[in-house]
Amino acid sequence: xxxxxxxxxxxxxxxxxxxxxxxxxYLSWQKSKxxxxxxxxxxxxxxxxxxxxxxPNGIIIKxxxxxxxxxxxxxxxxxxxxxxxxxxxxxxxxxQLLKRIIFPIIIIYGLLLSIIPSxxxxxxxxxxxxxxxxxxxxxxxxxxxxxxxxLGILSFWVIFFFFNNGIKVKEKYVRxxxxxxSGGVLCFLLSSITDFVFGANPNIFYISIYTMFFNALAIGLxxxxxEYKKEEKIxxxxxxxx
Length: 242
Known about the structure:
Helix 1 (6-32) packs antiparallel against helix 2 (35-54). The protein has helices at 6-32, 35-54, 64-92, 96-119, 141-168, 172-198, 205-227; strands at 125-129, 132-136. The chain has a two-stranded antiparallel sheet. With 242 residues, it is mainly α. The chain has a single domain (6-227), classed as Up-down Bundle (Rhopdopsin 7-helix transmembrane proteins). The model is unreliable at 231-236 (pLDDT under 50). The chain is built from 7 helices and 2 strands; from the N terminus they run H-H-H-H-E-E-H-H-H. A hairpin with a 2-residue loop joins strand 1 (125-129) and strand 2 (132-136).
């Protein structure tokens, strides 16, 4: 009986939607050359790269060692994407010094948590829940906790920023878009918690499914935020007409 790599297939479906969002933002950035839209583009390019790196797991690549290496690599691009999201909030608030200080810290932190588990690389753990097959990393609970905590802190800041600004602004359109973005990142935060804090176990099949569900919901909300159209002729002070 053929075993189905359900997590990879679900991830690749999400990839299609995130590619659509990325192209939409790129076309908008080409017109406006806005710094904030540019940061948003970098966010989605990073997330797209993460899912592209993950895409061949179990479909094209079946060597457990290479699959485990992919787990280590793709995680870095989530740090990169959230790093750009944090830079976006600093750009909106005109905090140039914080941008120069915080971004290198995020990059170094993400790189270390990708490189250290790759030094003594072991085969990925295989989980089977017929007819499905999936894999889990062998980073161990300590590294996964550091990854989950790092992604969680970055996500929490972005959630707080957009939710707080959504409460403050008067324009209904800008407020609703801010809430959609904060909701999308909240789902990504829940995904990080289930994946890196609770999900590093090949027997926890449903935790992996929950992770994909939160990822799909996150992308859906962010897609809706990007596609959300204003009725009033006002300017979104964050992203213009994206």
